[in-house]
Amino acid sequence: MIHPRKASAVLLFCVFAFAFARAQTAAQGSKPAYEVFAIRYASIPDFPVSALVAGADPARKLSIAMTVWLVRGNGRNILVDSGFYRPQFFKTWKVEGFMKPSDAVAQAGVKPEEITDVIITHMHWDHADGMDLFPNARIWVQKDEYTYYTGPAWQTPLTHGGIDPDDVLAAVKLNVAGRLSMVNGDSQEIIPGITCYTGGKHTYQSQYVGVNTRAGTVVLASDNMYLYENLEKYAPIAQTLDTDSNLRAQERMKQLAASPRLIIPGHDPAVFEKFPKVREGVVRID
Ligand SMILES: [Zn+2]
Q: Which pTM was predicted?
């Protein structure tokens, strides 16, 4: 028979061992928590809201935010979208307050060469053009988006609006250099705590990104939800290949995000008022 004092020591040891084992399991099971920042590198003034929110008053205009999202943690500096910088876009669009996306990211504290990954939500010029500004980054794009816009989209005149030939060539160059990864469809956790989702149909296979943070899941919707107004009014984005799919994607974002506040639209300047300012043009999202 065991002495009572010895028995209590054994019991105490068991309690500690159990608690330690549980803590270890929790640590193994939990995902890394990232910090998320929205970085505004330009604005496009007088943009018609009716081109963003289906059914909006055509007279309404908005200075839209041009944004990249920086996700830091787990030894990585991930960018979601890469902005634009090539000269042709400044001839077509009135651009204000421009800073090259790589410079804007550097001002926020991360050098271009320190970016480890760039997740491209879709191939439109204002999201994909900067993908070659980050020399050490792996580029992530949906497989169907890459395949379509490097191929069949150019066989007919109306199926590549918003896609710039230079960006197609840049993507192909990154692929043949071994630096591009194709995300194969929906709900793909490409990096621990970073998951890509499809369904918004802003382009052929646009994606949005769920990021695990200390506040739970943040959804970076990009242009699958242009403005908060899309979600608030249950209005699809004005530019989608499939309206129903877009509304379903927005509904799903509500399920995925820790709270509706943490669904971040692609071009809404209100993002930079709703969240705490880190420096000019940079807010922290959580
Ligand atoms: Zn856009």
A: 0.89
Residue 55 maps to a domain: yes
User: pLDDT of the chain along its 286 residues, tens only?
Assistant: 445 455 454 444 444 444 444 443 344 358 899 999 999 999 999 999 999 999 999 999 999 999 999 999 999 999 999 999 999 999 999 999 999 999 999 999 999 999 999 999 999 999 999 999 999 999 999 999 999 999 999 999 999 999 999 999 999 999 999 999 999 999 999 999 999 999 889 999 999 999 999 999 999 999 999 999 999 999 999 989 999 999 999 999 999 999 999 999 999 999 999 999 999 999 999 9
Q: How far is CA 66 from CA 95, 204, 222, 266, 269, in A?
A: 10, 21, 10, 8, 9
Cα 124 to ligand 1 centre (Å)? 7
Expressed in angstroms and rounded, the spacing between residue 68 Cα and the centre of ligand 1 is 10
Q: How far is the CA of 125 from the centre of ligand 1 (A)?
A: 8
Cα 225 to middle of ligand 1, angstroms = 10
Domain assignment present for residue 71? The answer is: yes
Domain count, the chain: 1
What spacing in Å lies between the alpha carbon of 61 and ligand 1's midpoint? 16
Q: Considering the domain boundaries, does residue 36 fall inside one?
A: yes
Greatest distance between any 2 Cα atoms in the chain: 89
CATH for 238: 3.60.15.10
Contact indicator for 65, 242 with CB cutoff of 8 Å: no
Report CA(286)–ligand 1 centroid distance (Å): 22
Domain housing 233: 31-284
